[in-house]
Amino acid sequence: MTNLINEVNRHLSDDVIIQLSKQLGAQDPNMVKRATQGVSELLLSAISKNATHQERGGGLFGAIEKDHDGGILGDLLGVFTGKQQVNNPKTMNGSGIVNHLLGNRQLEAAQVIGQMSGLDIFKSGVLMQLLAPVIMGVVGQKQRSNGLDLGGLASILLGGGQQQQSRGQGAAGVFGKLLDMDGDGSMMDDLLNIGMKILKK
Questions:
Q1: What are the distances in angstroms from CA 46 to CA 38, 55, 99, 136?
Q2: pTM
Q3: Which pLDDT tens digit goes with each residue over 131-164?
Q4: N or C: which end of the chain has fewer CB within 10 A?
């Protein structure tokens, strides 16, 4: 998954970050850049969790094959400024993607991203929706270029998982706990405390 995070970051150039900051109404692009890192790790973790789930995996793979071929990555700045149109509206349905991946954990996810980056919860939530098509595009491009089936895609997504896990209380640990929540919010204090510890490192 680390390689996929690096691939997402490669497409999120300074110009793209500045454009995202404008769309969010955020004054500090560096804050947005920190938040994009958290969003990338969170959503890729959620995609990998879905890919290894017997029931949800097939639906995810179908959506990637049909709606996310990575085409938007060719001119990401143009897509975000509106100068580049995307033919398939489902490709840019960030709210639908986030809802599918996170369900009732969206609010908690936005809070954790906000705590880790300094971005407020509303802007963190909107940023997740803006970035979701980009992250799905990176995954779809990888799936297409390597001719991966669902099992192969899951393997790519889980690559480096043990290394991330060994870092203990790192970002991957925070998001793993978040994705395992049952939605009752009872773990929020622990999650936010872990997020604050990461900030202090």
A1: 12, 14, 11, 11
A2: 0.80
A3: 999 999 999 898 887 887 777 777 877 774 434 4
A4: C
Sign of CA dihedral 50, 90, 147, 75: negative
Rounded to whole angstroms, how far apart are CA atoms 179 and 153? 19
Domain ranges of the chain: 2-200
- Tell me the CA distances in angstroms from 23 to 27, 80, 117, 201, one per residue in order: 11, 9, 17, 30
* Main-chain dihedrals φ then ψ at residue 187, nearest 5 degrees: -95, 5
Q: Which residue has the tokens 């097939």?
A: 58
Nearest to 40 by CA among 65, 6, 75, 74: 6
Per the listing, tokens 């995609």 go with 47
Block residue for tokens 């996929």: 4
